[in-house]
Amino acid sequence: MKCRLSICCMAFCLFVGLSFVAQAQQRSSADTSKSMLHKAFQRLTVGGYGEAVYNYNFFSDNFNRYSRAADYADSKGHGRVDLPHAVIMLGYDFGHGWTMGTEIEFEHGGTESAIEMEAEEAGEFEKEIERGGEVALEQFWVEKSFTPWLKLRMGHMVVPVGMTNNNHTPNMFFNVYRPEGENTIMPCTWHETGISLWGHFGKNRTWRYEVMALPSLNANMFTQDGWVHNGSASAYEFKVANHLSAAARIDNTSIPGLRLSLSGYIGNSFDNDLLSNTSKKYADVKGTVIIGAFDFAYRNKWVTVRGNADYGHLSDADLISAHNLSQNHSTSSPYPHTRVGEAAYALGLEAGVNVLANSTHRQKLYIFARGEKYDSYVPHAKLDDIPWCERTVLTGGVNYYPLPEIAIKAEGGVRLLADQYNNEPWVAVGITWCGFFK
Fold this sequence. Notes:
The chain is mostly beta strands. Helices cover 14% and strands 47% of the residues. It has helices spanning 2-43, 163-166, 180-185, 317-325, and strands at residues 44-57, 78-82, 85-95, 98-107, 112-118, 124-131, 134-147, 150-158, 191-201, 207-215, 244-252, 258-268, 288-299, 303-314, 343-354, 364-378, 390-403, 406-416, 424-436. A 16-stranded antiparallel β-barrel has the order 1-3-4-7-8-9-10-11-12-13-14-15-16-17-18-19. β17 and β18 (406-416) form a beta hairpin. The longest helix has 42 residues, at 2-43.
């Protein structure tokens, strides 16, 4: 009897001991999971930016307003509401120098489409587009950092050419919309799949460089009113890369508050499409695009000044224009069928004064002015000019920052064209945010 009692006691003690051990293991496992989750969360970066805009244009938006300007001289204008960009940014640090970054962009509210059954039409199914816009994976890359002066980035990323592409968040410009000149003649924001080398060097890392290999632009998409702006687009589920290009940028911040930058691009654009041309007339056409850009930004407590100067050249512009206007492209193709200029340029300068610079609060109130001069169609000697493609843009307004991440913008502006056309004035207001949650 005593033996049985001893065995039962020992079994009970063993059961209790094992229960304590199991509970301890569960707590340890839970603590480990929490610790791993905490470490993963610490390595995650979440951010983004967005813009909501209302503008009223005191001019007609009819596509004939340049070809028959007199018919639209007394237009009452039109108002618009818009969501130019809403962007989600995600980044992660895997450790050992490996990181990744993504940027998903919804332009102009994204897209909304649906299939509906129409009761009024015998129950037929119809596909309806309820809202236009675009959804784009603007960045998706993996990076390996070897040293501060040598980092290798692979994937989909922003092409670092021009001021706006490299500084496209809404806290980097005063206007409600992005600067018009660069946004007209170049892809903006220009993003491509490629390989990039970049890094910082010099005393206090005041120099930054980047070189990038990427697919070339597509000359079939060039236009008279946008030069190579649409050249990075692809109507397919992939980007044709018959030709590869190179882009580069270098920045210097040696002087406190001042950034000076040079950037450029070079690549052949002709026959960089699924449709190739075998005609002997175009046998030697390369369509080489060369872009050079200078931009700067200066900021102190009181004043912010930014500016850009961009120039681009397209070889064989006359033959590319003839090709794009020809019947080689069917009417169902996604190509614009217009001429393209041999060159294009954009000049811009803006300055803002923070009238709340001495405030003890975090608020800022900038009064700003901006001037731009650009031409999306500088013609080949064999082609006629298109005067309305040359424009001067003057704007002015305010940016109010109740917090560093939020800005309320208001502006008035006018687009000045040649005498035979109607000038294009407007007013606009917008609210923007830009920041990182962690």
